[in-house]
Amino acid sequence: MFKIKDNRAWLGVLPVVLIVSFSGVVPLMAVINYSVQDILDFNTRFFVGFQWYQETLQDPRFIEAFLRQVAFSLSVLLIEVPLGILIARGIPRDGWLTSVLLILLAIPLLIPWNVVGTIWQLFARSDIGLLGVTLNQMGFSFNYTVNPVDAWLTVLAMDVWHWTSLVALLTFAGLSSVPNAYYQAAKLDGASDWQVFRYIQLPRLRSVLIIAVLLRLIDSFMIYTETFVLTGGGPGNTTTFLSQHLATIAVGQFDLGPAAAFSVIYFLFTLLFCWIFYASITANHD
Question: pTM score, two decimals?
Fold first, then answer.
């Protein structure tokens, strides 16, 4: 006796699929169309094929921004993921303190990106900022507006402050799903704290950490507003990432064809990196 499946529930998802298709796929197809044309004005355009793609991939500024972006994204993941796990493991599982800590962790995530840049712009100033003045009084010559290393570290610290909470909250949600019986059995067996994490908590966090890593990877590749407000991409091009370089071409120079090709390459690189991370994580698990 065959059981007939009722797929009417998919009708409830259909509006979402249509909206996403309209808001995501249609603009992407328009950008791809622009990327193979030389657009002089609204009515004048010429087909140039893959010329803009070739020029973009050979542009030293694009290569530098890409390498800078990769270094930043990898740094963010190497810091925020372990730090978020460490914070989540330190939060009590129940009680009033748990609620307070979760609310405090959520605060940075609620702040708009431009406000985050403004906060750190004031916080890190070498003349009046709490961080900048403190570091200079300690003997460090800190000035993120003129020193490339200081600018890089300030942007990195800003992102860690802003987004580590996301990893911590997701990890805490995953840890909350571990039954108490597991911990009781580990205690009876005399398992160390590392063994509890390695053999009990980490397997339960696999799906959560995949989501956290992908979210942070995608978002780090899209970083724009915070760095634009904080450093403006400087000093020089030290903190000019792919998104800001793209904005300069599209908005500053109004070169729609090259900007469209840049956008497509940008999208494909982001998609490729996400696939590599996801494939490596699932392959290691298997």
Answer: 0.84
